[in-house]
What does this fold into?
Amino acid sequence: MKSGATLWWDAGLPGIRYIDQTLLPEEYKIVDCRTVQRLATAIRRLEIRGAPALGVAGAFGVALAASACTNKDPSAFVASVKKDAELLRATRPTAVNLGWGIDRVLARLTGCRDTDTARADSLSEAQTIAKEDTLCCHAIGDHGAALLPSRCTVLTHCNAGALACSSWGTALGVIRSAVNFGKDVRVIACETRPLLQGARLTAWELAHDGIDVTVITDSTAAHLMRTGTIDAVIVGADRITRDAVFNKIGTYMHAVCARYHGIPFYVAAPLSTFDATRTEQEVTIEERNRDELAVMGNSTLIPDGVPVKNFAFDATPMELVTAIITERGVFRHPIDIEALLSTGVTQTTIDPHSS
Ligand code: MRU
It folds into this structure.
């Protein structure tokens, strides 16, 4: 990974370069993306994925639209960039960061006096978003590390690591920080059917960093919680509403199981993932295509004509969350999202070397 980054702007293209996450762990390939249409395909195919990385991709996507638009008339220019932005926004409905990144750059360019300034400013805003994301992940990691015992086994679901962010990661950022602080952390990575982000990506990242990781089938998690192997569950988030945490399908069952067994269930996410104006009922859960379940390589796994349900995400009620770890600190149960966002100061005093 280039300086640990998942995606970045390349002035020489001009455009975005990113790690194609569909090919890992078999192949590490950097893709050159020169058009908004190609970026939209990359997001739909999960070549770029993970909420914070989608925020950065949306931001660079608007910068790309601006860089490609040659119209000198400011209002026609803005209209063209906004049209491209809507194409990107429609690619994935659940991860709130995508629209957040797009809107932040759009807001910056709409106020510009001419198209050259708009181009330069939109790129500068996107670069800032990418840098801020890395800083947020490190802050989340350092705050969250204090929650982990000095020797522990942590279960995680999907991939909330460097690949899902600009770098470092949210849930995996907590694990990376804890390891950096000298804690002995073992990670249990759920494979995360059907696209195997846990088996392919979390395992790849952690093994690459020399962090102890073991992959299990998703259905093994309950057994390990029951038999006392798991000390904590840490996951990322795609959207946090007033009442629920949306994350990869399967997260809810881990939260229920963790509560039953008295295991802390932590969510690590930047403030850009919060959507305090909405409740669970107002969020669209992405449903993906049948072949992700029904086809593996050249094999058909499900008889023709039998329907499938392939939800990409589920919602975990806030009451099951032990604490949310943000760049501002650790917010413990009972969690009041509006208060969390408005005060900005309610945070646990952090001693990363504690416990
Ligand atoms: O469908 P994906 O792979 O984009 O889903 C990703 C997740 O569910 C992650 O857990 C979430 O985006 C948090 S990433 C820091």
Summary: The pocket of MRU is lined by residues 46, 49-52, 95, 158, 160, 164-165, 170, 197, 236-238, 247-248, 312 (CB under 6 Å). The longest strand covers residues 184-190. The radius of gyration is 20 Å.
